[in-house]
Amino acid sequence: MVQISEVKGNTRENRTAAHTHIKGLGLRSDGYAETTGAGFVGQIAAREACGVVVDLIKSKKMSGRAVLLAGGPGTGKTALALAVSHELGTKVPFCPIVGSEIYSTEVKKTEALMENFRRAIGLRVRETKEVYEGEVTELTPEEAENPLGGYGKTISHLLIGLKSYRGTKKLRLDPSIYEAIQKERVTVGDVIYIEANTGACKRVGRSDAYATEFDLEAEEYVPIPKGDVHKKKEIVQDVTLHDLDIANARPQGGQDIMSMMGQLMKPKKTEITDKLRQEINKVVNRYIDQNIAELVPGVLFIDEVHMLDIECFTYLNRALESTISPIVILASNRGRCTIRGTEDIIAAHGIPPDLLARILIIPTVAYTADEVKTIVRVRAKTEGLAITEPALEKISEHGVKVSLRYALQLLTPASILARVGGKKEIDVDEVGECEDLFIDARRSARIVDEGDNFIS
Ligand SMILES: Nc1ncnc2c1ncn2[C@@H]1O[C@H](COP(=O)(O)OP(=O)(O)OP(=O)(O)O)[C@@H](O)[C@H]1O
Ligand SMILES: [Mg+2]
């Protein structure tokens, strides 16, 4: 017999990534930061500054501007940006990329940048649509002789019965809708809605009148829709401009066999031309004027921004000035360095001065011993590790002497050593052992400098 285990949603509760403990900026309602809040420790000024940025974004006063998080390695720049995205919620698009991501052989750099710009601009479309909504009580395709004289029969139309709280209705639908219904695998007892003017059909779930029937529990049960079967319904959709680009760039599927094949095979990457984007911008602007849609400028976060080159920076300059533009958050851990793509132009953070001049800069500072200790403690808790106070002290020392990252990285191996040794908590011994097993960057560099070139 086949075992069917319950399929859970793909919540990733068991995985802890580098920033799992960061749940937000941890600000009070008056905008000031608690010393520790939402997993964030210290870095008070930068957090408060980010809080202001979040407020500006939410009140839509910030589009077309850029913020730079500047500070040494491991001072929480990436963590801050992620916290900003938490604070903004899911309705505001947040598109994180790393500077080096745009160098691909497939697309131009500026094209890749543009694509990400458009991923970061949302559009909330509000439409009142005429829909038929209800539980399916009947589903009968009616056949007819093939008008072209072939052998098979064709579906001439589809009879469908829909039941809602207030009444029932029987509809006679076009065969094209039958395809949509088949695609959604609609059966009697499902709750569906059909858009009157486009014929698009969506299966909402299984009617809860059937909730007791035998099934695999993979179903979502929904109540029978209120009101009449035929009604007007406001549908709010959140899309990004990039979604619109993609949807319109892909060749629209017809009903011939080639487009069927095309759908089965891997979708080919179709180019989004500038012309298409302009067309879409035009339509979007019209929607905005007509109050059908609302622009939601989101955030484009470019980590390690010094990896961009001079062409990209010039492009960024221009893109920020366009009327439809997101908020751009940059992060860099470089001080003065050459701008990529130039021979010898040295600039702060590797960003050309003309761009830098229009950016708000938020500095991040190194952590004190106490702060490091609290961060290590928060991390240990997130990873579910028990650690004794002296061991915590010892790991934190590394946070100050070497780097916060090194300290945090020692935690997991130390916990494994503790488990192997049959201990419930990480103790000083394990930390000491880990220090010898895994050396930090500085010690490693020293070994190399002492003339050990590994191959000789
Ligand atoms: N104030 C903080 N509170 C809690 N955790 C922090 C804090 N600052 C940094 N961390 C954690 O320390 C680690 C390193 O921080 P992060 O990756 O944000 O550094 P960064 O400034 O982006 O460094 P880099 O310049 O090398 O990219 C991460 O796991 C991060 O979650
Ligand atoms: Mg980073």
Question: What can you see in these coordinates?
Answer:
Belongs to the RuvB family. This is RuvB-like helicase. DNA helicase participates in several chromatin remodeling complexes, including the SWR1 and the INO80 complexes. It is built from 14 helices and 17 strands. With 456 residues, it is α/β, with parallel strands linked by helices. It has three domains: 151 residues, Rossmann fold (3-Layer(aba) Sandwich), CATH 3.40.50; 165 residues, OB fold (Dihydrolipoamide Acetyltransferase, E2P), CATH 2.40.50.360; 87 residues, Orthogonal Bundle (Helicase, Ruva Protein, domain 3), CATH 1.10.8. Strands 5, 6, 7, 8, 9, 10, 11 and 12 form an eight-stranded mixed beta sheet that branches. Helix 5 packs across helix 7 and helix 12 crosses helix 13. The site of adenosine-5'-triphosphate (ATP) has 21 residues, from strand 2, helix 2, helix 10 and helix 12.
Indicate the structural class.
alpha/beta
| Biggest sheet features | 8 strands, mixed
- How many helices? The count is 14
Identify the CATH class of the largest domain.
Mainly Beta
The set of bound ligands, ions and cofactors reads: adenosine-5'-triphosphate, magnesium ion
Kindly state the number of beta strands: 17
Binned, the helix content reads 25-40%
Low-confidence stretches: 1-13, 258-262
Question: From the coordinates shown, what is the CATH architecture of the largest domain?
Answer: Beta Barrel
Region (Disordered): 1-20
Subcellular location: Nucleus
Domain AAA+ ATPase: 63-352
EC number: 3.6.4.12
